[in-house]
Amino acid sequence: MADLSRLLDRAIRTGSRIARRLPGTVGGMGIYFSAQHRLADDPDRTDWHADVDALLALADHSLARGRISASLRWYDKALRISYDPALHQAGSSPLAADPAAFLRPLQDSAMGTIMLHGTVPAPSLPERPAPRRRDEGDATTRLLVIAQENWTFIRPIITALRATGRFEVREIEVDELAEAGFPDRDRILRGRYDLVTTGRRMPTPPEIVAGYEWADVVLVEWSHHVLTWVTLLDRAPRALMARLHRFEAFTPFVLLHDHARIDRMLYVSPPVWNLARIVAPGFADVDAVRVGNLLARGLGPDPGSHHDPHLLVQVGWRREVKDVLFSLEVLTRLRARDTSYRLRLIGPGLPASASQDSSFHRRVRDRLAALDPDAVEQLGRREDVPTLLAESGIILSSSHHEGTHESVMEGLAAGCPAVIRDWPDAADYGGPATLYERDWVVADVDAAVQRVLDLAAPERYAAAAREARDFALAHRDPDVLVAAYEHALTPDPAAA
């Protein structure tokens, strides 16, 4: 079966390389599929720009002939290549590096001008329910949460809000709506086109209508295609709010919302919110409130004094965006001074077979092989992460970009001082210093090595460990976080 899969993959790759040289639709599909394969093989290649231009040209050609559906499909393929995860979720992101240059082709094509610069006609405003009649003394907020599949981060918040007794919460999983309730990507893009060209909105499923009639506030978890869809509907809730994570800023959907329909954005990462406002100017007039995440494993007990200051730890390292090569270089330089320094890597490791390595994995494998066998612990996926952190000395964040990097906060809660690289793709937007103490953020490998060495003295390490724990308690105290959500999810009476 594995051999058959490899043969099919090879055939598709060969066919798409041949087809891309042909004119018309066949050539366009060849360009699209071969671009995907080539980016998967080498995210650092730059010829994807020409592929995007070719797909946009096909979109504009179809638009000129009045073939709207075909034009939208080609435009979507240009979006898919531009926002391919290999470009943004691996190493450095071209969107973060230069938003204007990245977006220009998508904005300046004929279809892009309609989709991204089109003005929503004023008469298309969706109907909102009348203010809810409350019984005397009823101060409960009715909250409807809408999401698709991934409820991981919002579920603890929902549970905590219910526990206050001041929130009644209902949930809608869009994949469980009745048939034709939640549209696919093609219909969402068509909905955006129809809205800006004709003012026509998408029909609201009955379950959503009923939820809007019940709720004081609707919260959309994840500000991607689900939020785009909700803002395109012909009905609106009394108050619409959404939560923004890092992932959504690197999708095209932040460009496609009807931003005027959003009453408030809840964001967890200042650098991500700063980037999103640059990428999508429609966010400029949207009220925004910063909120946090409850730690998945909690704050845990007060850590003991069993840390090993010479044991560095990194949680998550397989993906290129985590840039473990930075950490391995830090370790190499530390061990040139003192061979007692070690690095503990927690999380899925390299492929079982080197034949499955990406170019990044090959570089990591080579660096690991150059170190002494006892220099690096590869622990794989573990359920006892808090215990492992409590034994470690310093938590490392070496990523190209992050939203909050939750494992850093877990390390702080366990009493591990942090060494946080100034995430290159987030540095222009505030970087980790908007989330953590500026003194913990380092510009490069040299600065990271120096911070680790500065923490070597026992009295300095003990003070830094206490500072780390206190920071976690102050910023991830469940009562404080839940109170912030209560405030953020309370609609402005003037806007009702």
Detailed description of the structure:
This protein is 47% helix and 11% strand. The chain is of the alpha/beta class and 496 residues long. It folds into three domains: 2-85 and 102-117, no CATH class; 140-296 and 480-495, Rossmann fold (3-Layer(aba) Sandwich); 311-476, Rossmann fold (3-Layer(aba) Sandwich). The chain has a six-stranded parallel sheet with strand order 2-1-3-4-5-6, sandwiched between helices. Strands 9-8-7-10-11-12 form a six-stranded parallel sheet, sandwiched between helices. α9 (155-164) links the parallel β1 (141-147) and β2 (167-173). The longest helix is centred in the last third of the chain and has 19 residues, at 458-476. The radius of gyration is 25 Å and the shape is globular. Residues 118-137 are annotated as: Disordered.
Summarize the entry for a quick read.
The chain is α/β, with parallel strands linked by helices and 496 residues long. The protein has helices at 2-19, 24-41, 48-64, 68-82, 85-88, 94-97, 99-108, 110-117, 155-164, 185-198, 206-214, 225-232, 246-249, 253-256, 270-279, 324-335, 359-370, 385-391, 406-413, 445-454, 458-476, 478-488; strands spanning 141-147, 167-173, 217-221, 240-244, 264-267, 287-290, 311-315, 342-346, 376-380, 394-397, 418-421, 441-442.
